[in-house]
Amino acid sequence: MRGSKFLVYSVLVVMMLGSLVACGPTPTAAPTAPPTEAPTTAPTEAPATPVPAEKIELVMWHSQNQLDARESFQALLDGFMAENPDIEITQTIFNWVDVKPKVMAAIAAGEPPTDMIQVLPDMMVPMLPTGAIQPVDDIIQEVDEKWDYFDSATGPYYKDGHYWAVPAFGIANMLYYRISYFEEKGLEPPKTWDDLVAAAEALTDEEAGVYGIGLPLAKSMYTDQVLWDFLVTNSGDIFDEEGNITFNTPEVIEALALMKELAPYSPPDATNWVWEDANNALAAGSIAMIIQFGHMSNMFAETNPDNPFDLGCVPIPIKTEPGTLGMANAFAIFTTDPVKREAVKRFWIYAMDPENNGKWLGNMSPGLMFPVTDASFPVYLDQAGVDKFRRNIQVELEEGVPYIKQYGFTHELVPDVVGPIAAQNIMGEAVQRMILEDLTPEEAAAWGQEAMEALLE
Question: What is the pTM of this model?
Answer without folding.
Answer: 0.85
